[in-house]
């Protein structure tokens, strides 16, 4: 939409040119928009939005934010246990993926004090080493 506004600003443009630009650019813009919408939905525990994205095949293991955090990381960080369970059990996202800094969703849950999410992730194999998550939790509580 922004790109379309910039190209048409200040001068008349034929309708066919506008349609062509939207066909060329809208999939990329939609992909970028979804990559920001998915972590937000996970942080807010918006399971309905995530279900729609899963049905539209937008929600997958490739969706990550700029720091490499998946929707699972965002749900764990925000303490949204039902959303976290949906993402891992129903959407099939890995519960032990790593961010760019090496943190797993269990690390994020521990760092933010979301013990229910941490416990569930540890019982589901959501940390590559359970010891590292416990050490991280103890360190963050000090």
UniProtKB/TrEMBL annotation:
It is found in: Cell projection, Stereocilium. It comes from the Eukaryota. Keywords: ANK repeat, Hearing, Repeat. Pfam families: Ank_2. InterPro entries: Ankyrin_rpt, Ankyrin_rpt-contain_sf, Espin/Espin-like. One of its GO terms (biological process) is actin filament bundle assembly. Transmembrane segments: none annotated. One of its GO terms (molecular function) is actin filament binding. One of its GO terms (cellular component) is cytoplasm. Signal peptide: none annotated. This is Uncharacterized protein. It comes from Oncorhynchus mykiss. The lineage of its organism: Eukaryota, Metazoa, Chordata, Craniata, Vertebrata.
């Amino acid at each position: 939409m922004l790109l379309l506004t910039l190209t048409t600003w200040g001068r008349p443009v034929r309708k066919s040119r506008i349609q062509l630009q939207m066909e060329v650019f809208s999939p990329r813009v939609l992909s970028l928009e979804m990559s920001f919408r998915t972590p937000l939905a996970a942080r807010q525990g918006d399971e309905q939005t995530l279900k729609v994205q899963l049905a539209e095949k937008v929600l997958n293991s490739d969706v990550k934010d700029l720091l490499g955090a998946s929707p699972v990381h965002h749900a764990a960080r925000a303490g949204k246990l039902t959303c976290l369970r949906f993402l891992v059990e129903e959407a099939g996202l890995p519960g032990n993926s790593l961010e760019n800094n090496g943190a797993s969703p269990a690390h994020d849950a521990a760092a933010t004090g979301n013990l229910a999410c941490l416990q569930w992730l540890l019982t589901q194999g959501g940390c590559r080493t359970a010891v590292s998550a416990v050490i991280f939790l103890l360190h963050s509580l000090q």
